[in-house]
Amino acid sequence: MNALISQLINLFASVILILAFAMLSQRRIVNLIHLYTWQGLAVVGSTVVVAYVTHQHHLFYSAALTFLLKVILIPYFLHRLINRLNVRWDIETLFNIPTLMIIGIILVVFAFNVALPIAKFSDTVAHGTLGIALACILLSFLMMITRAKAVPQVIGFLAMENALFLAATSATYGMPMVVELGIALDVLVGILILGVFMFQIREQFDSLDIRHLEKLKED
Amino acid sequence: MLNWLSIDVVLLVITIWLGIGVAGVIALRQFGFVARVLFPLGGMCCLALAWAALQMIGSTPETAVLPLGLPQLPFHLRLDSLAAFFLLVIGAVGAGISIFAAGYFRKGAGTPPGLLCLEYHVFLASMVLVILADDAYAFMVAWETMALSSFFLVTANHKLPEVQEAGFLYLLIAHVGAIGILLCFGVLQANSGDYTFANMRIQSLSPFWASTAFILALFGFGAKAGMLPLHVWLPEAHPAAPSPVSALMSGIMLKTAIYGLLRISFDLLHVNVWWWGGLLLALGLATALFGVVFATVQTDMKRLLAYSSIENIGLLLAGIGLALIFHAYNMSALTALALTAVLYHVVSHAFFKSLLFLGTGAVLHATGERNLGRLGGLIRYMPWVAWLMLIGVFASSGLPPFSGFVSEWLLLQSFLFTPGLPDSFLNMFIPIVAAVIALVAALAGYAMVKFFGVIFLGQPREEKLKEAHDAGLWEKIGMLWLAAWCIALGLFPNFLIRLIDSVTVSLVGAGLGRHTTESSWLFLAPSSIERASFAPLLFLLGVTIGCLVAFALVRILYHGRLRRTPPWDCGHPWQTARMQDTAEGFGQPIRQIFEPFFRMKRHLPTPMDRNPSYKVEVGDHFWHWLYLPIARLIEFLAGLVGRLQQGRISIYLLYSFLTLLFMLFLVQR
Amino acid sequence: MSISGFLSQLLAIVMALFLAPLLMGWVNQWRCWLQNRSGPGVLQPYRMLHKLFHKESVVAEHASSLFRMAPYIVFGCMVLACAIIPTLSTDLPLSPAADAIALVGLFAVARVFISLAAMDIGTAFGTLGARREMLIGFLAEPALLSVLFTASLISNSTALTSIVEYLAHKEFAIYPSLAFAGIAFTMVSFAENARVPVDNPATHLELTMIHEALILEYSGRHLALIEWASALKLFAYSCMGLALFFPWGIAEAEAPLALIFAIPALVFKLAIGGFLLALIETLSAKMRIFRVPEFLASAFLLAVIGMLVHFLLGA
User: Fold this and answer.
1) Do C109 and B400 touch (CB under 8 A)?
2) How close C301 gets to chain B, by Cα (Å)?
3) Quick check: is B638 in a domain?
4) N or C, where is chain B less crowded by C-beta within 10 Å?
5) Which tens digit of pLDDT belongs to each residue from C206-218?
């Protein structure tokens, strides 16, 4: 039974990876938020399973915290944000998705190989998922690099935080509670600030295209 | 035969071929004699060669020393299993091509038939010698003869400027490659001064020099095979040559390069480093993908086939690369599996590509058109050629149960057996490579459907096509021979695999033999039936029975009534042949998806144009980014050297004088 | 070949032949219900086949024999495909004839034949259909192969029966790599069976059709065979998906009684699968033709990631 449950952790990690790829190739902003919500749910799921297997009770709390924050609060904020900004049905032109995915695969191979030797030293139940977590971090990074609009970039940033959280749980059964609370607060405040920021950007440039920020450079 | 060794038979065949060539020169313009007597005779010799080689596979190597050439430097010849295997390919494929050639060459412009006959048979003889050679000297002489004789064959229609250019490019790259091979032999003999292969086998090289030798060999043989960035001559030279010659070049000559690579990396070199395999795998994949993507957008039928040859060479190189990786980790059973796939593909590609090139020859004769955009509907006027070509097309797209599928299947199997390599990076990359190979194979199907569909199906795009006539008797026999082998190799793979076994056993000391004899002749199973199996005959039977039962039941339970009317086409009232997809149109999706591969120049009409026209030119990035800069550099350097030429006698004398002084100074030191 | 093996093989073929149109009818019925229409009943495909077989075949005047052969060959290929996929039992004497790779080859043979037949008449729509079909095929084929590779890496075999036996009868385990493969497989099946996000089976709007453009010139018994073959193809794909990802209930060799339970299990699984298919079709909109390569490339890459995940996690 225990073996099956640890396989469940791997399954959740894979779902997070699939969602990272889906976000990489998603054009519609509202769908991105949905994907982010699902990813948060998968992170919660994997944390709960790890907590159950290892009897680390603080992980239950952090799972609950994650659920509250990443599945309810942040998506709610984001939905409000895109409604207020009126970009709900915006579509972003992406450059060649298959190329993006191929770069993604190379990143995955790289991440897996980097993680293999590290994972060997770790004796946690979820050590296998370290590679996946690393791959998700890199993919979210790639997503942030390739997006030109502000909201998808913020979502990329949030997805990266998800992946970091997964890495922390898989490698060391999560960070101390204080640190986690701090991060949660940071993310929440970050979202609020970024939301305000986006309104400012739009007021200034009449668009959320962050390429306009290039104009701020002094010549 | 009175105790004749196989190698004697082979030498006899070479002599007869040379004799036929001389006879051709004597009967220079007697067309009937050359075509109807000499070429079939050459074809019979091919069969004898194949028979001798067949006897030879698996027995102890035979050697011979010919007192030819320079004093102290005789030709060493050696016939072992690997050589015999390639001789078998030359013989079996060459026979079909020679018979076809008997009916193909016509009176007309260009080289007189007798001279063509000489060049053709010298070409065959030199390929056999390349494979027999057992010292660097004989090898290089044969290699250069092969290059020269094929150059003259390519330029048979030397009045056309594009043929001249193609011939020049071919000769240039062939010689650059030959330098690489020569240097490679220089490294291999390890300063011992003895250039026989026997000596090279016993030398042990340091990893650095071994790698140098391997890279040089890869460069030299890659140039001949059409490996990526050295492929540019291939799509120019193959279409320029007469069709039987294209068939020989594509079907057989490219394989001599594969032979050379196998000979050097598995026989002469003992050191083995895994990155050789990795490099070859990467280059092979790039070549295959590049070749197939370009094949899908071609509009000239022979160019399309030439690019498809590049693709197949890429697959072969990738297979050799995989074998080298396994070899480096001492996994001999897997090495044997990958090598078996490679050798099987060598044979099947030789047959189906020759068949396809011969078919284009027949089409060319019947219509005078090479441009796909002006063909169409030929299945109604040339049924023989069309149906035989269909077999080649199926084999070439790697569809079961034809020969191309067996090699593809073996190749994919050898990729799937990989887990267990000690390197995790390799373990992860190799299944991805298998996926890419699947992509290449599927794209090859696209290219071949385009090739066959545009030439033979639909409505004729030109009025004159309705007068097209089917191939002559000789041509039909030649094509039938090749097509029959495409089917036989697809249906009975185990017979060939048993032959290949002796080759792999002699190269790496392992083979699939045990498994192929254990499982019955019906099933192809590299390790066990539970692991993987393929029974082409059962497969064919299954489909056929399905068809026949369906046919019989429909006729019995219902009826077989049929009415012929004009086509429906969604009710469009009138249609012309110009409404069908052109060759460009059929390739357009690929052009769009793989846009970065091409260097495209488009000319789009504007709405205001009186005579709107659309034009697209598809070019090769390598030509632009690699070859043109090199050409410019050489031109620049040549300009510098040209400054030495002043035109005054006294200055030239000064040069000689200075040279003399310099030499004396050197001698004095 | 044992008697029970022969029987289960025969049963598999016969059941495929007669259940396939029913599955088609079931999917179409659910599509109608989900779209608030009243459907023609699940038996409609049988009626249609019967009608078409009765009609005389109208063939273009310059059609070659390739055109008339193609429906039979396509039908034969699909029958063989249904025979080697373990639908009811893994005790199939025909299955060593073709493993997973050869199965993909079999689908490719059918595809090439139908495309060539479409080009044979030389109408604008025929060639358009052939080109699009080959476009979809060249991306779907490697994706399908990669899915099968993932499964064969797990079970160390490319023989379909061995894969299914391994997945169904070994100790239960979760394979994350199969999650990737499953999504990829679903995407490929939609493309290969001309279902909605890629192609609309109900359209005759000239510029959007793919599969319908291919078979535009067929009528009478030829059309009936092709329709039946595409029903068989849908059946084969569904069974392959069920066998790979939900392999429970498939009878093993040497257990003839299990066959009796295998039939209701299969029908139940197919009923759910058919409903899900109709649901997804109803919920999604048809893509532009040049979004299709993106869609299939994603499927291809997902399958490849599945293989990678297999290497990372060893499962």
Assistant:
1) yes
2) 9
3) yes
4) C
5) 777 888 888 889 9
